[in-house]
Design goal:
185 residues; Cell division inhibitor SulA; 3-stranded mixed β-sheet; alpha+beta
Amino acid sequence: MFGWLATRSLPLCSHAAPVAVSQRSRRIAPEAWIRALPGLGSVLYLHRTSRVPEDAVSPGALVAHHHLAPLLDIHTLVTTSVITDDGPREWLECLDRLGCTRARLHLLPDTDFLAWDALTASCQPERHPPRACSWRPDRAAVMQFRLRELAGLALLEPGHSASLSPLSSGIAARIAQAESAVLLK
């Protein structure tokens, strides 16, 4: 049975339309990036567990938790859009100054779309996007960001967790599963 299926399914797959991926690379100042995060509302934040929290450098900014440290070293955003079986998906690939992915933010139905568009529109287009480093997230969390001043420094911390719509919860779970990342509650 399997042999028949394997030989018969090959012509069917060649008729499938390729997935179109749209990407735009944009440069952003780290200070503008940190200031824009709270306006987004609920997003799916994907990151890798960092053993060295001091690897991120952004003058004048601190993070309240080490899992937010990758967000301090963002210099380039790659806006990616794709149509999947679940519908359209859009995310920000967050790159450091060397072009290595540090984090990824996924747009959810509960995200503030106007703030998302304003963030990407405020960035400078980049003519020569940085090279991509291999990266695989191991943690995912639906998050809202909060920024407050602490002794003259901007402190980035998780905001109050708002209840998500069932649609956003389902999409976040499917994205985390597709990325093989543990979705933290």
